[in-house]
Amino acid sequence: MRLAAPSGLRALAWPPASRLLAAGLAAVLLALWLAGLGLAPLFDVDEGAFAEASREMLASGDWWHTTLNGADRFDKPILVYWLQAASLWLLGSTEFAVRLPSALCAWAWCLATAAFVAPRWGRPAAVASAVVLATSLGPLLIGRAATADALLNLLIALTLFDLWRGLEGGDAPTGQPGGLSAGRGAWRRAWVWAGLGLLAKGPVAVVVPAGALLLWAALQGRPTWRRLWQAGRDWRGPLIALAIALPWYAYALHRHGQAFVDGFFLRHNLQRFSGPLEGHGGSAFYHLLLLPLLLLPWTPLLLPLLRQWRRWWQAPAGRFLLAWALFVLGFFSLSGTKLPHYMLYGITPLAVLLGCVLCSGTRAAGLAVLACCAGLAALGAASPWLLAGAVHRWGDGFWRAMVAGPGLPPGPDLGAAALVGLLLLAAAVWLWRQPRQTAAAALVAALGVAQWCSLQVLPWWGQALQGPTKALALQAAAQGGHLVQWQLHQPSAGFYRGQPVPRRAPQAGELALTRVDRLLPGAQVLQQQGALALVAQPAGVAP
Question: Domain residues of the chain, as ranges?
Answer without folding.
Answer: 7-12+36-172+181-361, 472-536
